[in-house]
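Troubleshooting log. The previous run stalled partway through. Resubmitting the same two chains, unchanged.
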Amino acid sequence: MNPEERKITTPASRVRGLGSARSGTQHFWMQRVTAVANIPLSIAFIAIVAIVLGRNHAAVVQILGSPLVAILLLLFVLNATYHMWLGMQVIIEDYVHEHIRKLTCLMTNTFFCAATAFTSVYAILKLSFGV
Amino acid sequence: MTGSPLPRPRPLSPHLQIWRPTLTMTMSIVHRITGTGLYLGSLLIAWWLIAASSGPNAYATVEAFYGSIIGKLVLFGYTWALIHHMLGGIRHLFWDLGYGFGKLEREWLARATVFGSITLTILLWAVGMLVVAPR
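Second attempt completed without errors. Output:
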């Protein structure tokens, strides 16, 4: 008997409200939460780019490292990378069906988003604290 | 019957090629394509931030690339993808709330997304090139 069959709960009660991925509507919901947050944060990002456009390096560092700009950039980068992590997962699950290939794609997606997020966060913090 | 192989392949629902392309269908595909573009485009932002934090030389390299013809084309495409994906996303949020499913409404929303994204992108770049950049 495998461990799944030994459980005394019925299969229906185990998945009730959670679905086959055991996480319910968490993925769908977080995609919407990050989508809504992305609207003001993307507009803020465009504004920040417009502010630093054409300025010399010293001025750019000073502007990007200032508290308000740095915090907006951090929120934008973290929110956007979370959103794209969720979005790319859906695309992979829709088009990649072979098991190992799917796992590889999903893992690569996580690595890519984490790497982009933390690279950007490191740069923003370095600009702020000037280490 | 459990465990026995299926006697014949299961019927398949009609694929993309069967249907006449519609605007809403194209918009759905474009939403995914722009999403993927922005996904890869996040490297442009990461590179820009890392360069700015590394020093004047690294920043000059990034500026030289983004200022070139190819760089500008890439950034123009990124801007359009960002705005299009945002407007398309707002359309999806309308749908999530239960609005905009009518025959006329969904066509209107799709047209507004295309028109809005192209207009806003050109407007942003016009402001950037004419007002902000020359300072």
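Takeaways: Chain B touches chain A at residues 32, 35-36, 38-39, 42-43, 45-46, 49-50, 52-53, 55-56, 59-60, 79, 82, 86, 89-90, 92-93, 96, 124, 127-128, 132-135 (CB under 8 Å). The helical segments of chain B are 23-54, 56-67, 69-96, 103-132.
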